[in-house]
């Protein structure tokens, strides 16, 4: 399976269809978002654009600081943010599975699986694409059926 950086247009093969990763800016018409029904914003809250935070937002901002010895320690780079998100989503960070927000994120994954099955495709939108971002981790988890 190709990585998101190598796959043309952010397309990834899926069991029943395609999971695409796109940039939310491409769906802003200057006044409001114009999203297809199979598209889901997976980023942080953005009041200026009227976007609510996704349960799958990356909780590890670039430039932030991490004390997580298991995965990363120090100032968070883009690659570090993706790595931390992967560990968080998979429950590899000590104690994360007991947090209500982790359970909520996994219910959102189940909703995305159902949306993917319904439409035969899924478009994950964030602000980073085509740079490496946490949406690629979400796509990996969905494709793996985790």
What secondary-structure arrangement, pairings included, does this model have?
Blueprint: E1 11-13, E2 18-23, E3 39-41, E4 65-66, E5 74-75, H1 78-89, H2 100-119, E6 121-126, H3 134-144
Parallel strand pairs: 2-6, 3-6
Antiparallel strand pairs: 1-2, 4-5
Task: Please provide a written account of the structure.
This protein has 146 residues and is of the alpha/beta class. The protein has one domain. Helices cover 29% and strands 15% of the residues. It has 3 helices and 6 strands. The strands form 2 sheets. Strands 1-2-6-3 form a 4-stranded mixed sheet. A hairpin with a 4-residue loop joins strand 1 and strand 2 (18-23).
Chain-averaged pLDDT: 82
User: What is the count of helical runs?
Assistant: 3
Dominant shape: globular
| Number of separate strands | 6
Number of domains: 1
Rg of Cα set: 15 Å
Summarize the structure.
This protein has one domain (8-144).
